[in-house]
Batch of 2 targets.
Target 1
Amino acid sequence: MLALLGAAALVLVAGEPWVLLAAAGGEDLEPPEDIDVYIIDDNCTLKWSSREAVGNVTFSAEYQTEEMENWLKLPGCQHITGTECKFSLLDTNVYIKISFRVRAEKGKSTSPWNEGDPFIPFQKAHIGPPGVRLEAEDKAILVYITHPGQGGNMWARDNFSFRYKIVIWQKSSGVTQIIETTYYTERILKLLPETTYCLKVEAIHFFLRKHSSYSAVQCINTTVADKMPVPENIEVDADGESYVLSWDYASPNVSFRAQWFPSYFKSISGSYLDKWETIPTCADVRTTRCVFPRDAVHTGTFFLRVQASHGDNTSFWSEEKLINSQKYTAIPPPVIAVTPSRDSLLVYVSCQDSPSTTCHGLTYEVSVWENTSNTKMKMVKESPEFTIGNLQPLTLYCVQARVHSFAVWNKSSSFSETLCKETRPGNSSQIWIMIALSIVIFSVLVLVLYAGRSLLKYLSCVYFSSPKPPPSIEEFFSEPSSKNLLFLMPEEHTERCFIIENTDSVTEESQASEEDHRKYSSQTSQDSGNYSNEEGSTGSDSGAGLRPSD
């Protein structure tokens, strides 16, 4: 027993240093648990729990992305005395998986690493409140919005992925008004001058369907009412290759100017005041309308605004009118292709500019009528391909088509050119021909079968009538076996067969056979009826078996 204890003591002395440390009073540490990360924009908080007494141990964290082979120390999360630490993902790819691990430390002792579940930061992150800045006019408030996490990495590619909900209310009443927009600048009109208004803004991500928290409530006072009113009721119409801009204004002796601005600038966070451009033909007009060429505006979607001035006094700018040039562009008539068949027409409608492609987002209308009739059949659907059935063969039909833009602009094109096509011949003539041929063939078969049956009946009557021997022979061959050994020539026929045919050849043959039959009957009627059976006759010759005696 003593020998065994001595051996154990020797092993302890020669063991690893951590064993010596444990023997000297070192302790095993429990690893942290419940590791999780909370992310809002680019700001992250790593949290965990521990069975160790907080304050007696510290904690350190490391991270690793799926692109890395080794674990790296997480900045801001080394030798932490609490159970959470904050860090940033500014230098990290937020679209790939990342993992975190944490361990406990006490002196020179450390616990094993405990690793949390990997995740993609972009999917896990919460959206922070957007930035908001306000400017006041006498009857309007300008709201400048910056997207959440401005300047960060998390939403840097999502400028166009947010929409915003603005909640505004008059401070004295508390009645709220909600305005939703996809722009980063919004002008709230029709407010009261010298009135305090408060608002807050929420950001909503289109694709992730996540809502941010609201921005901090901000309040602002509108200014004193301006001496010059703002131009109102901005309208735009098209006249050939020009736009006609008009507005309402009550005061006389006032000049106006108009500006335009590309709409996409409003979808970019930041101020756009320096992006407005003056329209040359609307820079100083004395009437409440101006005309400018379409090519003066270099984009398909833009804003227009108008300002009034009198001497040194100027009004605030009017509302910003959004213009889509497609609304004022006439839809050209489509091109149609018609393929006829026996009882239908296949009609395909395509754009005039590119016949091989369809006109997207449009509704198609096709009118079809028989060339000799004024009654038209109309079909409307969202597909450019039509099959018009139940038509008559070998008939000329005419087709027209047009397109509609009901969903957006509620306008239609003019009709296409009329295209007439004749349907192909039907198969009714072929059916009648086949029926006629079938009748002829059937008639021929009936005649052939009838002629063959008559001829067969005649032959059976002439050549295969059963012979009837005289009564003396019947008595002589009383045994049934003897009757079967002989073929007897008939003494006389007990019945006659007559075959009547329409053809001359069969009639002649019938007459010849009748004469032969009569001749044969007259010869046999002279027979004496006495027969003898010679011993030298053989049974093999059936024709010589019986012979009349002289």
Note: Residues 428-463 form the longest helix (36 residues).
Target 2
Amino acid sequence: MNSRYLRSFTILRTLKQSNRYVTTLSNFPLSQEKHNKKEFKTENNNLNYLGDPDTFGTLSKKVVEHNFEEDEDDIKEEKFLQDLPLQSQKLTIKQYADLIKQYVKLKRLKEAIDILEVRMLKEDRVKPDNYIYNILIGACAELGYTKKAFKLYNDMKKRTLKPTGDTYTCLFEACINSPFPKYGLKQATNLRNLMIEKGVEPNLTNYNVMIKTFGRCSDLPTAFKIVDEMISKKIKIRVQTFNHLLQACITDKENGLRHGLVVWRKMLNMKEKPNIYSFNLMLRCVKECNLGSKDDLIQLIEASQIQLQPNPKPLFIEGKAETKHNNIQKLKSPKNSMEEVCIKEDSNSDESSSLPNNNNVTQLQNITSLATAEPTLQIIDKPNKITTSQRTVPNLLSKVINIDEVLSLQEVTTPQDKFAIIGGQDDFLKEMNVYSVQPDIKTFTQMLPLLENSTEAENRLLESMNALNIKPDIDFYNMLMKKRCLRYDYNAALAVKNIIEKDRKSRKRHPLSKKHSLKLNIMTYGILALTCKDRKQAEELLNEMKEKQLKLNIEILGTLLQNATHDMQFGYILFVMSLVKQDNLRVNGVFLKHLEKFNNKCLSILEKNKQNNVESPVLKAAYERFYKIYINWLNDINIEEVLKEEHPWQQFKEPHPETLQRENINIIQPKKFYKRSHRFVKYVPKV
């Protein structure tokens, strides 16, 4: 009874499970593709399957795949591994360097850097060497892109490339040309400390450029310390090092000429022959720097006499004589360094002693103290005592200083007086002849501002150039024209234009006429704009520029505007303002300053006339018309955008802009395949 009950219960349970399974299969949706599949039956032929019974998981629900966002770095890595460059598209290091040099020559720095950072590293995947980095660092240094130069230097070290001497030279040059002197000095100091820390031994070129860098960045003591370091390492100081020291002295505007003369005397004492760069730097030092006090000049002559003459001659000076025995002991001591001689101030400068005689005769002393006064020499010539071989004035550049005719010292106020200390025009050229140094056009160009403001002195300089067979260039004529314009000698300035035309015709037959030809450039017309006192002359100048196919710039218009505002010519001013809008030029701060100053000048005149009850209807009407046009003009040129300062390095982060004038630029792409000649050459034995 119990066994029958259990068997019937088992049968019912089996039937229920089979019915539930069939119901589940009947309710499952079947696609058209599944009906076409082969059917499989079970052993009892009760159930039919659409798929293979040996395949599992066909009755379960479809698994939905979730779309997860891939990481950008994973995408870049996968792309980097898949997009491998072809071997045929890769170039040699020399070919990449030639491409970079072409862009550097055209001043297209961004395109040159992209050759390294985009084409070589990303597209072609070529490992650069230090030669490529040196070219780009040198290009950044030339244009003053200091930040990028040091970034390339850091990338170079990350790639385990060893910096060379040229690398450090270019980095220091980048500090020199930086538009931010403080930033350049900071980078130069860090670089020098890094070289000392890493044990990098600088070569002579590195030392010279370090002297130039710290001098240009107004760190004169460090520049002289580097010279002392060279002496301690027994490196012979050549004339190139002294030239870099002279460049460092020029940065000190108060005492630079005194430092420069000390360096010059030191160069003569070490028997180094000055070259053309030394003389040109001394002319620049005379132009831009001051000398010091009377005592400094006396001590400088004394030092020269003690070192180079066995029996120095006395110097006659009006007033009381003073000596500084401590300075003589310092200069006679062999332990003195360049820094102590040129930089250190004399702590005992107040201590002085007079000579026992009453003839006001004092011994010449050495120079070691700093001062701010500007001395000069008052020269009295004695023709009966001077021969043609002797010098007419004392020249502090010569080995032997002729002081027979020096009677007194006076204060200096002009560059002409400072130029007389080193001999003036004639004696300076004689000193160059003593060292067999031939002056060049740059010598006379720098000598021009030091001459007297007279046409006779300038004509005498032209005669000296003609005697030495030196051809003036357009820059020299521009300087001559500008000097005459600044002293309001406009007729003589316009006469220079005729001299240029006459000189240009005389050079046509020269075999190298292209090299020596004279052609008026944009700078010439910028100087000629100083002579345009009315609108008619300005229109003639602008028409001549159009004939020469020269593009007008805002600097020339600023010069014309300055002349117009000085004479209060409203029509002339409005004409210049209309040219700015017509040529779509970007105005600068100087141009806006002239307009603002003129506007304030008109308001002050009208206010003064109103207080004095003076009627000026013409001026009032002209100003009201000008003011309306002036306000609209400021809105049209977008004054806010104009006054926004542009970072000096922004131009190197953008592609080179297309100029309005046509440029014939052709970048020669290197050949990727070379066809080799396999021509058979028959062997012929040599007899």
Note: Strands lie at 40-41, 48-49, 315-316, 361-362, 375-379, 406-411.
